[in-house]
């Protein structure tokens, strides 16, 4: 199994086998506006690696949404209490 890394820009995400990313490829990607995503994975092929990446970021997004909901509710309660006590 290969280890895969991901590079993204505003409109695309590219997946590469880690061993195939040379300094020249990194330079070209950087020149084209790509940056390395903070995720890599071991997989059988690029398709499986991409599925793992999508699953990972969906799970993180859901966790952030839950946090934002919880934070918004508690912030609203405390703001209301503060406003009423003034």
Walk me through this protein's architecture:
This protein has 86 residues and is of the alpha+beta class. It has one domain (2-85). The chain is 57% helix and 24% strand. It contains 2 helices and 3 strands. The chain has helices spanning 23-31, 46-85, and strands spanning 2-8, 13-17, 35-43. Strands 2-1-3 form a 3-stranded antiparallel β-sheet, with helices on one face. Strand 1 (2-8) and strand 2 (13-17) form a beta hairpin. The longest helix has 40 residues, at 46-85. The protein is elongated, with a radius of gyration of 20 Å. The protein starts with a strand and ends with a helix. The model has no long low-confidence stretch (mean pLDDT 86).
The CA-CA distance between the termini, in Å, is 63 Å
Tally of DSSP β-strands: 3
- Overall average residue pLDDT: 86
Our Rg estimate from Cα atoms comes to 20 Å
Which features does this protein show?
single chain, 86 residues, alpha+beta, 3-stranded antiparallel sheet, 2 helices, 3 strands, 57% helix, elongated
In short:
This protein has 86 residues and is of the alpha+beta class.
Q: What are the SSEs and their pairings?
A:
Elements: E1 2-8, E2 13-17, H1 23-31, E3 35-43, H2 46-85
Antiparallel strand pairs: 1-2, 1-3
């Amino acid at each position: 199994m290969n280890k895969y890394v991901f590079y993204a820009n505003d409109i695309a995400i590219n997946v590469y086998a880690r061993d195939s990313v040379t300094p020249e490829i990194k330079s070209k990607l950087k020149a084209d506006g790509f940056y390395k995503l903070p995720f890599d994975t071991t997989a059988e092929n690029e398709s499986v690696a991409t599925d793992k990446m999508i699953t990972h970021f969906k799970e993180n997004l859901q966790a952030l949404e839950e946090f934002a909901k919880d934070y918004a509710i508690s912030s609203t309660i405390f703001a209301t209490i503060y406003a009423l006590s003034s």
